């Protein structure tokens, strides 16, 4: 003979199984009514804070020379046929040197960059033809738009260590090379 306690436990367990079965059956009926999507929803578009950036290039930066400078701008020129990856590498090289305080090794005055108030801009051109367009008197040598191949900006009014780098295809098409709101991290040496 079963004890009343065992019978109660048995009937309670049986009620739970019956309730669970009923809930499962109700859910199975509701799924087709509510609809079931077999494909996941599309990924949301990146927000202003989620900047999509390309990976750091593995090619060496091209040789360059300082074409012009003042207390807040440097115009750099490379060979006429520098590739996009070479320009990107140069922007990354400037970034690393600015943060490591080694711009003098690139023949760029570290003192001028350290004394920035509070921003310094590096404008990179392929060749010298259009390089004077930001400062020369008279009509721009290549027309009224900006013809730089890449830009590096170091410093901001709110954060002296903030920096921004871009590859430029034309005035309206630029590729951000990193998220400027992410703190700089020095590359690891292999």
Strand content: 15-25%
State the total count of DSSP E strands: 6
* Amino-to-carboxy terminus distance: 77 Å
**Count of discrete alpha- or pi-helical segments spanning 4 or more residues:** 3
Radius of gyration: 31 Å
Whole-number total of structural domains: 2
What percentage of residues falls in helices of 4 or more residues?
A: 25-40%
Stretches with pLDDT under 50, minimum 5 residues: 1-21
Major β-sheet profile: 6 strands, mixed
Structural category is alpha+beta
Order of secondary-structure elements: HEEHHEEEE
The dominant shape is globular
Overall mean pLDDT: 80
Order of neighbouring strands in the sheet with most strands: 1-2-3-4-5-6
Give an account of the 3D structure:
By secondary structure, this protein is of the alpha+beta class. It has two domains: about 1-35; about 65-130 and about 145-175, no CATH class. It is built from three helices and six strands. The radius of gyration is 31 Å and the shape is globular.
């Amino acid at each position: 003979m079963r004890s009343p306690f065992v019978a109660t436990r048995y009937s309670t367990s049986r009620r739970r199984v019956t309730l669970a079965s009923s809930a499962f059956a109700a859910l199975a009926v509701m799924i087709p009514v509510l609809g079931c999507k077999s494909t996941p929803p599309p990924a949301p578009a990146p927000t202003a804070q989620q900047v999509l950036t390309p990976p750091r290039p593995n090619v060496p930066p091209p040789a360059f020379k300082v074409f012009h400078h003042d207390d807040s701008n440097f115009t750099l020129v490379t060979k006429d046929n520098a590739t996009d990856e070479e320009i990107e590498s140069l922007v990354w090289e400037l970034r690393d040197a600015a943060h490591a305080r080694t711009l003098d090794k690139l023949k760029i005055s570290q003192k001028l960059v350290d004394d920035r108030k509070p921003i310094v801009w590096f404008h990179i051109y392929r060749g010298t033809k259009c390089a004077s367009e930001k400062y020369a008197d008279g009509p721009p040598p290549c027309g009224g738009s900006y013809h730089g191949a890449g830009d590096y900006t170091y410093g901001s009014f709110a954060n002296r260590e903030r920096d921004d780098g871009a590859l430029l295809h034309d005035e309206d098409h630029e590729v951000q090379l990193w998220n400027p709101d992410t703190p700089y991290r020095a590359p690891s040496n292999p």
